[in-house]
Design brief:
Blueprint (H helix, E strand, L loop, with lengths): L2 E6 L8 E3 L1 E5 L2 E2 L5 E4 L17 E5 L5 E5 L2 E5 L8 E2 L7 E4 L2 H11 L4 E4 L28 E5 H17 L17 E3 L10 E6 L2 E10 L18 H7 L1 E2 L2 E10 L3 E4 L4 E5 L14
Parallel strand pairs: 12-13
Antiparallel strand pairs: 1-2, 1-13, 3-4, 3-18, 5-11, 6-7, 7-8, 9-10, 10-11, 12-17, 14-15, 14-19, 15-17, 16-17
Length: 287
């Protein structure tokens, strides 16, 4: 196996940035999800709450800054050093600093709801929840519950086959092919057999080792096409029929770095299998 794609999400829930290499820090890839969005009360705002966030994109800049884009317009923001970090509502353990009122107004106008851009000064202050596979030494950015998400092309190919089969069985027109961006991975690999990653316990990407902290459960945001923003029943409908257990739908794995270093497109990927493959519910439900 080898790495075929690397992506950063400098602002959580905005469209990501493809890169050819990235530094690996204890809390994930450098420049990934150190910025986020909150409402006027300081509660997190994500694409799960408002898919319109996906109309904006972000780019990591040298020095920790971020470039936020919407259509042909953009705003550059630098980390607001010196201010006091405050808790983010709905994001356990996360603290962040308000960025720039002018950028807040610009974002609010484009998305159509009050938004404030915030920056996390120290990811080491936030741990990974134990029920998400966290250990005492782990640290986390403004990500949901893991420093990195890894997906495989083989698993996406298998999911696409299932989606097409579902449409044929229902007499429906086949939808547009799924793109990996729906699943917002940090690292994509060409893969072993489909869903072999379910049983991985550790992964070495290039020269950097990672622990698999958990499988990645999926929400309704995957039902939004990131290119057109159209919504539909897939891939959740097919995941519910094929990849549902423990009350959730699964695609990809969550990783925690065990060392620092660098990962690059083309790097070899070696996995250790030491976990039992999950079994499907006896009677999966549709979504």
């Amino acid at each position: 196996m080898h790495v075929t794609d690397i992506r950063l999400y400098p602002v959580k829930s905005l469209a990501g940035q493809a890169v050819t290499s990235a530094a690996v820090e204890p809390w994930g890839l450098a420049g990934d999800r150190r910025w986020g969005l909150v409402d006027e009360s300081g509660h997190k705002v994500t694409a799960l709450m408002d898919p319109r966030l996906l109309t904006l994109s972000s780019e990591h800049l040298a020095g920790g800054g971020v470039l936020v884009r919407h259509a042909e317009q953009s705003r550059r923001v630098h980390p607001p050093h010196g201010a006091t970090a405050r808790p983010i509502g709905g994001a356990v353990g996360a603290h962040a600093v308000p960025a720039d009122p002018e950028v807040d107004a610009w974002l609010t106008q484009r998305v159509g709801r009050p938004l404030r851009l915030v920056w996390q000064p120290d990811p080491a202050d936030r741990g990974i929840p134990a029920d998400r596979g966290g250990q005492p030494q782990d640290s986390l950015t403004l990500a949901w519950s893991s420093p990195l998400v890894l997906t495989t092309e083989r698993s996406l190919e298998q999911l696409q086959e299932w989606v097409d089969e579902t449409a044929d069985e229902r007499g429906e027109r086949r939808a547009e092919r799924l793109v990996m961006e729906r699943f917002r991975p940090n690292v994509v690999v060409d893969g072993d057999t489909p869903f072999a990653e379910d049983g991985w316990s550790h992964v070495r990407i290039g020269d950097v080792d990672h622990r698999v902290s958990a499988l990645c459960d999926r929400c309704v945001v995957t039902g939004v096409d990131p290119l057109t923003l159209r919504t539909g029943p897939e891939p959740l409908r097919t995941l519910a029929a094929r990849r549902r257990w423990d009350g959730a739908l699964w695609f990809g794995v969550r990783l925690v770095p065990l060392a620092t270093g660098e990962v690059r497109v083309g790097d070899p990927v070696r996995a250790v299998t030491a976990r039992p493959t999950p079994t499907l519910d006896q009677a999966p439900t549709t979504v």
